[in-house]
Amino acid sequence: MTGFRAVAAAAAATLALIPAASFAQPVRGYYAATPATAPEKASLVTRSTVWKCGDGVCTAAKANARDNIVCELVAREVGTLTAFRANGADFDTDALAKCNTKAR
User: Fold this and answer.
1) What pLDDT digit, counting tens, does each position of 44-62 carry?
2) pTM as predicted
3) Pairing of strands 31-35, 49-54
4) Are 86 and 59 spatial neighbours (Cβ–Cβ below 8 Å)?
5) Running DSSP on this structure, what letter comes out for residue 66?
6) pLDDT of residue 3
7) Could you give the C-alpha distances from 91 to 13, 15, 32, 46, 64, in angstroms and in order?
8) Could you give the CA distance from residue 63 to residue 74 in angstroms, rounded to a whole number?
């Protein structure tokens, strides 16, 4: 009977973790960069951030740099951006203009 309780407790603990995982931030999509012209490649890397591009938008997981630095790095690779979003918040006009000073 003790073995059954241990297995049941382990199963319950495992099941308790499943809903929490469904609410986690998706791996891709913390950042969304919209280049003025479509990038030539479907993926690119800025420092250690992997970007996937398609349908006119490039997305990436959260990086270990400030959002404005990440924006500048992707603009340097894909050119002028018409929009940049980090963690669901769009850059305002001034922040986007500053980011685009680093565009290729």
Assistant:
1) 999 999 999 999 999 999 9
2) 0.72
3) unpaired
4) no
5) -
6) 58
7) 41, 39, 11, 19, 18
8) 12
Other Cβ atoms closer than 10 A to 1: 5
From its phi and psi, is residue 33 left (phi > 0), alpha (psi between -120 and 50) or beta?
Answer: beta
DSSP state of 64: S
Positive or negative torsion for Cα 38, 43, 44, 49: positive
CB 80 within 8 Å of CB 33: no
45: helix, strand or coil: strand
Q: What is the phi/psi pair of residue 17, to 5°?
A: -80, -25
pLDDT tens digit string along 16-49? Answer: 444 433 333 343 589 999 999 999 899 999 999 9
Closest CA to 71 of 58, 52, 56, 55: 58
Give CA 12 to chain center in angstroms. 32
